[in-house]
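Input sequence (53 aa), recorded before submission:
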Amino acid sequence: MHRLKELQKNRAARLRHTMDAFHRWLFDTAGDQKPINPVLFLATPPTAACPHR
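Predicted structure, token format:
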């Protein structure tokens, strides 16, 4: 709960959280070294690992 409050109040924390989620998604998705379209990140539903994306 504390993390959600921090994200609501702090732009830098929101950006850091978003970039962390994007990097996790990128490494999970492109682990086989094939080029991917990063726009697909926006179409990916949230997961238990990153429920607040």
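Checked by second reader. DSSP finds three helices and no strands in the chain.
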